[in-house]
Amino acid sequence: MMEDLRAADEARTERLMRMGEAPRNRSELVRKLVWIVPWLFFLAGPVSDLTGGHHTTGATVAGWAGFVSFTGIYLAVVFRNMGRPFRGPLVGALVAVLFALAVVLSLTLGDNWLGLFVYVSVTCGATLPLRVAYWTIPTTTVAMILVGLHVGQETAWGLFLVVLLVGYSMSGVRQLVHTTVELRKARATVAQLAANEERLRLARDLHDLLGHSLSLITLKSELAGRMLPDHPDKAAQQVADIEQVSRQALVDVREAVTGYRRPRLAAELAGAQVALTAAGVAAEVPAEPDLAGVPEEAEATLAWALREAVTNVVRHSGAGRCTVEVLRRQTLDGPVLELAVEDDGSGGSGKGPGNGLTGLTERLEKVGGTLEAGRVRLGFRLVARVPTATAADVGSGA
């Protein structure tokens, strides 16, 4: 269950990270168009003006031609900027064409066309380099005001803040998308480096574990082969030594594999945060638990307890909130590390402890720990405790 939730969260994150990249399929194309189309609201003025019969036939035809050209260039520049943008000089030329069309159409056809300057400002903020956008956006705003003084001063002042702020807003969105893409690349790089480091560590451990043992087995096998015809008793002793070395190597490998497979409490806490958030549960989870003096087996058992508790919260409880605490306590039996998981859900429909809680109880008993689980006033609470070393034990290396 935990792995499924992590996979779902990673898939959701991957969908969010696709910002700033070209669409891979029709679904992504539609989603990107949905972000662009609502911005065409300001084109209602020019369309209303052209369909209202306020101009001559020639002016209407010319207006439609300019309108279609302006809209096509705007959509082409902005949509391409989401994936594979045009080259810098071409973008600058297309922005200049949009600016010229906005000025000419507004001066010749009236104040209904001043909304085109909104799209010029958006294009400047979304496509031009920041140092260029910072002066082209106010330039576009001033040009819109100057044109408005000739065709409709009231309309121009009404659009003043819109033209100015929407351009800078798009610059901010562009920076956010760029940062998101860079973080995505950095996360992939870190994950690859971590995987490489883990492979190297595994290779070093296996070499240290098996290098000496296999060399010794090879040497003793050669000796046994030489002694076998003339000294079978000595050869038998070498074979016995080979068996002993092989058994010890097998034990070492099993211990190493167990160490790799043993869950870590810090990793499970991070996984619990992801799983609860993905399930829509408000989570309070500590980041860095103090594990000084906690045996590895005890830590692994607490990690299993946390995994089981979070799985129950996500699957069965219907909770809206979950709190995880990792505390050190002094009890009559000595110092313990306590894991508490409390939620505000129903605790499931079972009438007794399930197989998961039964298995946890057995795990905790093996390391000298205890488990308490049951209903509380506002939900369900699970508390797992494992013994820890005292301060004196830790200082003495016990």
Write up what this structure looks like.
This protein has 398 residues and is an alpha+beta fold. Helices cover 69% and strands 10% of the residues. It is built from 13 helices and five strands. A five-stranded mixed sheet has the order 1-2-3-5-4. The chain is elongated and about 115 Å long. The two termini are 38 Å apart. The model is unreliable at 1-6, 8-20 and 391-398 (pLDDT under 50).
Give the SSE layout.
Layout: H1 2-17, H2 26-36, H3 44-51, H4 57-81, H5 88-109, H6 116-127, H7 130-151, H8 153-227, H9 232-261, H10 265-278, E1 282-284, H11 296-317, E2 321-331, E3 334-343, H12 355-366, E4 370-376, E5 379-387, H13 391-396
Parallel strand pairs: 1-2
Antiparallel strand pairs: 2-3, 3-5, 4-5
Helix pairs in contact: 1-10, 3-4, 4-5, 4-6, 5-6, 5-7, 6-7, 6-8, 7-8, 8-9, 10-11, 11-12
Counted by DSSP, the helix tally is: 13
**Cα Rg:** 35 Å
Overall morphology = elongated
Order of helices and strands: HHHHHHHHHHEHEEHEEH
| Strands in their spatial order, largest beta sheet | 1-2-3-5-4
Low-confidence stretches: 1-6, 8-20, 391-398
Distance between the termini: 38 Å
* Class based on secondary structure composition and strand pairing: alpha+beta
Q: Strand fraction band?
A: 5-15%
Percentage of residues in helical conformation = 55-70%
The biggest beta sheet reads: 5 strands, mixed
Number of strands: 5
Question: How would you state the average pLDDT, rounded?
Answer: 79
